[in-house]
């Protein structure tokens, strides 16, 4: 497969999402949820693993494509010798069942169009039984049933374990394809009107984006990032998945291929900050409520990630029948990092709830009780080594970022009690803990000879997460230890003008072979740090180069490979788009998270 990660656009209905290639093929779609088995898995394999392509007969990649302004409705156009044709793709907000609507429209001339649908349930491994019913093509296998119809009717036929259609559209003519999923033991859900769905989707998205109160530079990139974040939201619960995909490699041909279709606590504060600052209080409240539900329970059992509804069991396993994107195996489902200890998440939870309270989001009766319980646990547990923010698989260490976030937890707890003396808590104990953690980090996590904080106590390695030290308030931006750390990270972890998370070649730390690209969120953090330390011109230059990495429809993956000039990692990545929004807010004088 020759497609690049950035060749894909996203459509979705806030419960799942599909990736549409420049060739008009939907190569990834999980139904009915983000974390369900894929029925189109060509993204991680080949055509026999499932896809749905609609394009002019004999044509390759499109001539142009774009989202309709301020929406998640995608228009893809091909100019051919016979004329021009447009395919409009969307997933309307669902009532009961998920639908994919694809409307083919003649723009000029008369163009022959071919549709090829290959459904393969359970990540490309199960070929369904196909039949005809009441003008539909119906695919059934186990728990899954998919209905395909056209308006007006187009003849279809079966060939090579696929469903095909061929037709001609003239200028002004439209033919709509509608694919609908439902549990196979239930009756077919009500039919959606594809043309009404298009009109409603455009209207609803534009109504939503009109609420954005950011009006600074690069507003189009900010709005597109916010739309992407909204599209990665699981509407029934308010949870936001890290990405729509699993196993897109951090290095082409490598093994760093993880499942990101879950909700990470590490994203919580930055997500809240982006939503609140852009004016989306309802979405911020839904995310905060998901967070409170997810972390409720024994604080010793706090996880770094949860399922869309707060599920805790996310076992990791491999799909050997899929070769992986660009032969990057293994393909994984689930994420074994769910069982890791990462002390920083306690700080992220406490910081998120501090930000939410300060923004005036309605408090929950049990919210402070949960926070108090988390702090009681952290008072006795904070000295433990952990796996750190980046979920390394090389063993636990005293990661400096983790300890800094422990300080954040204590600081936010203290400040909450100082601002709200009616609340109960161990104010003297938390103050003492805050001071002790700060003192230890400055003594054990700082290399005075190199004038930089280090990745973990006693190490010489660096960690891009340390760029957050001034943002979370651990030290002021003009502290020499902060400026020294920013300079050291820029020099040692820089790659092609961007920033890696850490040195993957460091012996024993990472626990995985191979390397990875520059981490885009960390590169945005560098821009933030440069601005905070008085180097705003350099910060703006870096921000502009980062925005320039977005693809033709404004999307970013997790990482970027400067040598290959390609995006790598899962896609589109919420963390990258959250960081873009927060950096834009920071540079325009707004308040980001933290």
TrEMBL record:
Pathway: Glycan degradation; trehalose degradation; D-glucose from alpha,alpha-trehalose: step 1/1
InterPro entries the record matches: 6-hairpin_glycosidase_sf, 6hp_glycosidase-like_sf, GH15-like, Trehalase-like_N
The reaction(s) this protein catalyses: alpha,alpha-trehalose + H2O = alpha-D-glucose + beta-D-glucose
Domain Trehalase-like N-terminal: 3-139
GO biological process, one term: trehalose catabolic process
GH15-like domain boundaries: 216-584
GO MF, one annotated term: alpha,alpha-trehalase activity
Cofactor(s) required for function per UniProt: phosphate
Keyword tags: Carbohydrate metabolism, Glycosidase, Hydrolase
EC number: 3.2.1.28
Source domain of life: Bacteria
Cited PANTHER family: GLUCAN 1,4-ALPHA-GLUCOSIDASE, TREHALASE
Similarity comment: family membership: Belongs to the glycosyl hydrolase 15 family.
Name of the protein described by the UniProt record: Trehalase
Organism: Streptomyces griseochromogenes
């Amino acid at each position: 497969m020759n497609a690049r990660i950035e060749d894909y656009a996203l459509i979705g209905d806030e419960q799942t999402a599909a990736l549409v290639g420049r060739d008009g093929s939907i190569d990834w779609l999980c139904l009915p949820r983000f974390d369900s088995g894929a029925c189109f898995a060509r993204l991680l394999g080949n055509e026999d693993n499932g896809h749905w392509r609609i394009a002019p007969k004999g044509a390759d990649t499109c001539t142009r494509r774009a989202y309709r302004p301020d929406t998640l409705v995608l228009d893809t156009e091909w100019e051919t010798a016979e004329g021009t044709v447009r395919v409009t793709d969307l997933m309307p907000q669902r009532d009961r069942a998920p639908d994919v609507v694809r409307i083919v429209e003649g723009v000029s001339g008369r163009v022959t169009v071919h549709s090829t649908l290959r459904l393969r349930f359970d990540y490309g491994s199960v070929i369904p039984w196909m039949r005809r019913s009441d003008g539909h093509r119906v695919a059934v296998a186990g728990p899954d049933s998919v209905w395909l119809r056209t308006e007006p009717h187009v003849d279809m036929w079966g060939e090579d374990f696929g469903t095909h259609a061929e037709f001609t559209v003239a200028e002004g003519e439209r033919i709509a394809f509608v694919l609908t999923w439902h549990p196979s033991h239930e009756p077919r859900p009500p039919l959606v009107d594809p043309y009404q769905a298009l009109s409603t989707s455009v209207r609803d998205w534009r109504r939503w984006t009109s609420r954005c109160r950011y009006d600074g530079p690069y507003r189009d990139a900010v709005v597109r990032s916010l739309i992407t974040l909204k599209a990665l939201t699981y509407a029934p619960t308010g949870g936001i998945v890290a990405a729509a995909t699993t196993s897109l490699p951090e290095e082409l041909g490598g093994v760093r291929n993880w499942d990101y279709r879950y909700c990470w606590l590490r994203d919580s504060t930055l997500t809240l900050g982006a939503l609140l600052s852009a004016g989306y209080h309802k979405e911020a409240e839904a995310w905060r409520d998901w967070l409170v539900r997810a972390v409720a329970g024994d604080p010793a059992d706090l996880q770094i990630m949860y399922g869309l509804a707060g599920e805790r069991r996310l076992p990791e396993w491999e799909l050997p029948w899929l070769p992986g994107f660009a032969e990057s195996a293994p393909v994984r489902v689930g994420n074994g990092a769910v069982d890791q200890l990462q002390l920083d998440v306690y700080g992220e939870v406490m910081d998120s709830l501090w930000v939410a309270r300060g923004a005036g989001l309605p408090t929950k009766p049990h919210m402070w009780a949960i926070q108090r319980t988390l702090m009681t646990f952290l008072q006795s547990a904070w000295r433990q080594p952990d796996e750190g923010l980046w979920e390394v698989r090389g063993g636990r260490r005293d990661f400096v970022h983790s300890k800094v976030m422990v300080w954040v937890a204590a600081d936010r707890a203290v400040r909450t009690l100082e601002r709200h003396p009616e609340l109960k808590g161990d104010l003297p104990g938390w103050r003492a803990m805050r001071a002790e953690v700060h003192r230890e980090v400055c003594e054990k996590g700082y290399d005075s000879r190199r004038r930089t904080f280090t990745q973990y106590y006693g190490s010489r390695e660096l960690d891009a997460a340390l760029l957050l030290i001034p943002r979370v308030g651990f030290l002021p931006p003009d502290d020499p230890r902060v400026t020294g750390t920013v300079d050291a990270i820029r020099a040692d972890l820089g790659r092609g003008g961007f920033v890696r998370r850490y040195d993957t070649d460091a012996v024993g730390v990472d626990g995985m072979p191979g390397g990875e690209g520059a981490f885009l969120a960390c590169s945005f953090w560098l821009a933030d740090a440069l601005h905070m330390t008085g180097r705003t011109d350099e910060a703006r230059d870096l921000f502009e180069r980062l925005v320039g990495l977005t693809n033709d429809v404004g999307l970013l993956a997790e990482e970027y490979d400067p040598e290959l000039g390609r995006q790598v990692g899962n896609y589109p990545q919420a963390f990258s788009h959250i960081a873009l929004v927060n950096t834009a807010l920071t540079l325009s004088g707004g308040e980001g998270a933290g």
